């Protein structure tokens, strides 16, 4: 490979890494949204239970 080809190859690897990082961030974001939804679901019945208990 020429130096130019090696550089192109490294840039491509870098783009793939960036793409994987972006996918990872999207996954983290979805997990966070999921966690918030689940937490809200858990707090809802507990809050309702407190109201009924009072």
From TrEMBL:
Chain segments carrying region Disordered: 35-54
What name is this protein filed under?
Answer: Uncharacterized protein
